[in-house]
Design goal:
Layout lengths: L8 H4 E2 L7 E4 L7 E4 L3 E6 L4 H17 L4 E4 L1 E12 L2 E4 L2 E3 L2 H14 L3 H16 L6 E3 L1 H4 L4 E4 L6 H8 L15 E4 L7 H10 L7 E4 L3 E11 L3 H4 L3 H7 L6 H5 L5 H6 L1 E3 H12 L12 E5 L11 E2 L2 H9 L3 E4 L5 H10 L2 E5 L15 E6 L1 H6 L5 H7 L2 E6 L1 E2 L18 E2 L2 H15 L11 E2 L5
Parallel strand pairs: 1-8, 2-9, 4-20, 5-14, 10-11, 11-12, 15-17, 15-18, 16-22, 18-19, 19-20
Antiparallel strand pairs: 2-6, 3-5, 4-23, 6-7, 6-13, 7-8, 21-22
């Protein structure tokens, strides 16, 4: 796909308040966003270098100020698209890019990359504001019985990343569980192999749909096709009473965020799509009724980097593992488990501790009130913090992050950009003590109250 992202925004992006080609299946939905219960989120500085630890703490204080008192669930709904082209994990409607959830965010990132001058970026924000001034979106409806005769097309970023597959695509299938259709469901992704875990999760969580699903590496052109619409970007592009009524009754920090198109990434940290909730419900419904009596209650989420995973090491964690083992923790490599075993392990655990990585997407299936502890670095704090918040919020677990040191990088060195490669973790004494203190608090064995630095978002413990 070659596309000139320096063209005027209205020629590049599909705006529901202006452009046709998008219809709801059946009735118009009666909500677009709504307040939801949130995870309890805390952040801890854990570098062994005092100066870096202070910088970590200063940033987590700023991150904490961004946190609202509640999160918002954003509706994802079945729609009918016209003149649609699915290619490379993105979708065009009549040659304009559809701003749909995560794929829409990638479109906006590409636009920003191609238009790095401030005036060009502001041109996009002005265009979105102008469409907002036009009022509610002009999204019509399509007869449900007629829509059921149409095929389904869904975008997938790639065929190998568990995080993107779990948080962006898998839940979309839930919308077609009871559609009364036998029409094909095509999942479009860029060229490349589809990892076996993707097919296993689809067949396990949505067995009634498995025979309808194919993975398409070639671009797909459709005169008319069903898909799933996340209203994430619609919030900025329309003025709708269903949105304004909700914003009038929530944390006063929300309206400025959802009325400023440049803050869409911030909003994504404290929202989740309804597709993610439907995925959680569908997965838990597949678990045996007998429960999780055989699953560990205390888990260290290991990582087998010899099974095709990206090599992202961790060093200095042996003392931490020794202390955790003494407390009853078991090491579990989730990639060695079947899909249902992964869901059951996460849902049955009281505490899960994991280095930063895609496996933390399994928080989608955590039990409300369970504790998940992520060990990150200054690099993940700067460039990846917030990726897993939606997974925590949809499960309403307790989500703590301890920021340790970066493997092979001195404390006073420049923090590598993500384009330089995702670096490993060095777990020192400070990070070890932080993790053990959190565990002790949860198990009721803490010698003293957990000390700062920390920030707490919401929820009860």
């Amino acid at each position: 796909m070659t596309f000139d992202f320096r063209r005027p925004p209205m020629d590049i992006l599909h705006m529901p308040a202006v452009h046709p080609g998008l219809s709801y299946v059946g009735d118009t939905p009666d909500w677009i966003i709504r307040p939801a219960k949130a995870a309890a989120v805390r952040l801890f500085a854990g570098s062994d270098d005092p100066a870096l630890c202070a910088r970590q703490h200063a940033m987590l204080v700023r991150q904490g100020r961004m946190m609202t008192q509640e999160v918002l669930e954003i509706l994802s709904a079945p729609v009918v698209l016209e003149n649609a082209r699915f290619e490379r994990g993105m979708v065009q409607l009549a040659n304009r890019f559809w701003l749909n959830g995560a794929s829409g965010s990638r479109v906006r990132t590409q636009f920003a990359t191609a238009n790095d001058e401030r005036w060009r970026l502001e041109r996009l924000n002005r265009a979105i504001r102008r469409t907002r001034a036009k009022g509610p979106a002009r999204i019509g409806t399509h007869d449900a019985a007629e829509a059921a005769k149409l095929g389904v097309a869904i975008e997938l970023k790639n065929g190998f990343n568990y995080y993107h597959f779990s948080t962006e695509t898998l839940g979309s299938l839930a919308h077609f569980l009871n559609d009364g259709s036998t029409a094909p469901i095509r999942i479009h992704l860029p060229s490349g192999k589809v990892k076996s875990f993707i097919r296993r999760f689809v067949a396990t969580i949505f067995p009634s749909l498995a025979e309808r699903i194919t993975f398409e590496r070639a671009a797909g052109d459709y005169e008319r096709v069903r898909s799933v619409y996340s209203h994430q970007h619609l919030l900025y592009a329309v003025r709708d009473p269903m949105i304004d009524t909700v914003l009038a009754g929530v944390d006063p920090r929300w309206p400025p965020v959802l009325r400023d198109p440049s803050r869409f990434k911030q909003a994504a940290k404290f929202t989740y799509d309804s597709s993610l909730r439907l995925l959680r419900e569908a997965a838990l419904a597949q678990l045996p009724r007998a429960g999780h009596s055989s699953t560990p209650r205390l888990i260290w989420m290991g990582r087998d980097e010899g099974q095709g995973a990206r090599v992202r090491g961790i060093e200095g964690h042996e003392p931490l593992l020794e202390e955790l083992t003494a407390l009853g923790f078991e090491q579990v490599a989730f990639e060695h488990l079947s899909p249902l075993e992964q869901v059951a392990a996460m849902n049955g655990a009281d505490i899960v501790i994991a280095p930063h990585g895609a496996g933390l997407a399994n928080m989608i299936y955590a039990r409300p009130g369970a504790t998940v502890i992520e060990i990150g670095t200054r690099q993940t704090q700067l460039h990846r913090w917030g990726d897993f918040l939606k997974c925590a919020h949809v499960s309403r677990c307790n989500y703590d992050t301890v920021f340790a040191d970066i493997e092979g990088v001195d404390a006073d060195a420049r923090v590598p950009a993500m384009s330089d490669g995702h670096r490993g973790i060095r777990v020192g004494r400070n990070a070890t003590d932080r993790v053990i203190a959190i565990v002790g608090e949860v198990l009721g064995r803490a010698a003293a109250p957990l000390e700062a630095p920390q920030h707490r978002m919401t929820g009860t413990r």
